[in-house]
Amino acid sequence: MVHPADNREVVRSNRIGPITILILIKSITILIIFYYLACNHLSMDRNQKLILVIGIFILVGLLLIDIYLALIGVIILIVLWMSFRIMANSAILPNVAVSLRDDAKGIVVTNKGNAEALNIHIALVPLNKEYDLPSMQVDEQQEFPSSTMIEEAKAVVTYEDAAGRKYSRSYGLSALGGGEEDLLRPAFPIFGWK
């Protein structure tokens, strides 16, 4: 029969005992491998690498205190690493958009991305009109007037980023409709969204 005073001993017996030196060495090795994979293969800022290294040292300290605290620290460190990857991915994408002017007598080309777009080529189908731009900075707009109103057309845009990667998009242009703007589209280009 278990008495209430013995209950504390039963509850305390569920805890993991002291961490051995072997487990500590394995954990430090895993953290060093994580740092190597996380930082050396990505173009990370020096401050971001410093934050991850400090996080690894804090993780080793938490591992000495309690393994459950160390697991919580691992989760936080992985979330930080993923955030840094997302920041690096979203910092270099141009996004050239084409829309009609309000009076439908021309098109407006805008770079909505966060990087410079190069070698921009716009083709209006079936109007057989083509426009070229050498480059567009972030949030820059260019207007191309038309002698007649454009009722309905499709704009096919091809452009490059500074690294030479090519992008291609098409936009439905209509004087009566609101266009094909996707409401679920992120506010800035991310994850290679084209």
Account of the protein in words:
The chain has 194 residues and is of the alpha+beta class. The protein has two domains: 73 residues; 79 residues, Immunoglobulin-like, CATH 2.60.40. The protein has four helices and seven strands. The strands form two sheets. A four-stranded antiparallel beta sheet has the order 4-3-6-7, with no helix packed on it. Strands 1-2-5 form a three-stranded antiparallel beta sheet, with no helix packed on it. A hairpin with a 3-residue loop joins strand 3 and strand 4. It is rod-shaped, with a radius of gyration of 28 Å. The termini are far apart. About 3% of the residues have low confidence.
Question: Can you say what the CATH homologous superfamily of the largest domain is?
Answer: Domain of unknown function DUF5300
The radius of gyration over CA amounts to 28 Å
Low-confidence stretches: 10-15
Structural class: alpha+beta
Overall pLDDT, averaged? 77
Overall number of domains: 2
What's the SSE blueprint?
Layout: H1 7-12, H2 21-39, H3 46-65, H4 67-90, E1 96-100, E2 106-111, E3 117-125, E4 129-136, E5 141-145, E6 152-160, E7 166-174
Antiparallel strand pairs: 1-2, 2-5, 3-4, 3-6, 6-7
Helix pairs in contact: 2-3, 3-4
Keywords:
single chain; alpha+beta; 2 domains; 194 residues; rod-shaped; Immunoglobulin-like; four-stranded antiparallel sheet; 7 strands
